[in-house]
Amino acid sequence: MANSSNTYSERRETLLISSGDVAEMIRCLMAKKSPIKIQAGGWSMDPFIRDQDVLTIAPLSRDMIKLGEIVAFKVQKKDKSFRLGMHRVVQVLDRENYLIKGDNTSPDPDGIVPRNQILGKVIKIERNNKTIRLGVSQGGGRARPLVKAQSSGTPDNFHEKIEIRFQAQKIPMISRPTIWTTILEHFKKNEFEKKRHPISFDFDITARCNNDCRHCYINVPPDSPEHIEKELSLSQIERIADEAVSMGTLWCLLSGGEPLLREDFDDIYVMLKRKGLLLSLYTNATLITPHRIQLLKRYPPRDIEITVYGVTKETFGKVTSRPENFNAFKRGLKLLLDNNIPVRLKAMIMRSNIHEFSEIAAFCRRYTKDFFRFDPHLHLRYDGNPERNRRILAERLTPQEIAALDHKDPSRSASLQKDCHIYIRDSSNNENDKRLFCCGLGRNSFSVGFDGMFRLCPSLCAPMCMYDLKNGSLAEAWTTFAPRIMSMTTSDPEIGLKCHRCEIINLCQWCPANAHLESGRLEYRPDYFCEVARARSEALKSRLVSDSE
Asked: Distance of alpha carbon 105 from its chain centroid, rounded?
């Protein structure tokens, strides 16, 4: 919270000075172990800290700064001068380095701030002469006179701080939009290479949806009283979020169903932002309104992903069974794009819209040039509904049609050819023949259903692989329950000797979770999956031979 002014003035009993001088004043007072009060200005921590709130900042103790605490820190500007920052610790890297971010700033963090640039921590918030409860201990001592400082947003030396830290770790400098991704990859490749850590989680806050897509594996009617009754309450969601943050989780994906159907969506979204979580949102865009735009502008998400079912009302209606929602989809998408909300477009390709594949791809790339993905692999229902499963099966493409799509899209075709050694491999490479789960299950992420069921993968719906968070803790689910699932073994030769050692398993949709959706058994090999993988492999080999001639 800084002031761009370099002038000094006195007005009544409030002293107005530059932000850099405020930072220096705080440093001097902290060195004398003396608390200080300052008046906050700006919106970067709203609503937890609001404009004009009075903050008490106390000196740091010898203890490690805790996750979630709000700290005052020095921010070096491009001209080498300093200003004051006041944001939340969202990751404790080690005793001397902390990842810091404003609750209501852009999706990116301020950067990795060394302890010697952290001046003190906020121990008290006063608003309208009333104390706002903080989740950290209150400090003692007599506070100094009130100093007012204005905020100017994200530190303008963001890149320099990240670059210095990453160069020390021999990680290349990257552009601002990918900072978070790189930090997460850094954790996965280094700190957590041999240690499980819950970096991110998916949260399906409802199964209800205002569309009725033929291929959907989860949706139920928007006014289903049975499912409304099963949905977690705001307080239950907050308890799970608190546990996740305390375990060091950084990123949450809000999904459904259609998450915006929940009447308390705004409360859920703001609450999670206040925890310091990086948020992504999956939505069909039909419920995006000017009110929601204001919410998303005030509390920016990392990104919003929207599935495009068709670019004409007829095709959209065939897939969603709700042609009347097509105009709402276009209106919602336009609102997001016009207001510069970060949007990514994707597609599910099936019998009802394959004829529009080229048009859908062009539409998506027009608005998200750096991102477009499509998926022709349709999963069966989480709830096993036989009638809905028949609809999904009727929408599935043939193996040959799926293989043709791989090479109809230039980007996917190029990626497959570039990484063909990954998709078609030496079958002797895999040594995990007896393990049931040979993927990255449970290493860095988990999923929570609308009913509070913990899963290590969104599709892993086998009853023995789910843990009820309504009657237990996330810590127990992650540290005790999850390892038992990860250590499950198979004695089925169809799985251990064929699937795990198959040279084209990376072109296949087989996994225990999808096998259970297909058959009710974790150890099952669907013929359709094998046929699709073989067709994709043959098409890839043919393309490689053709390009080499």
From this structure: 16
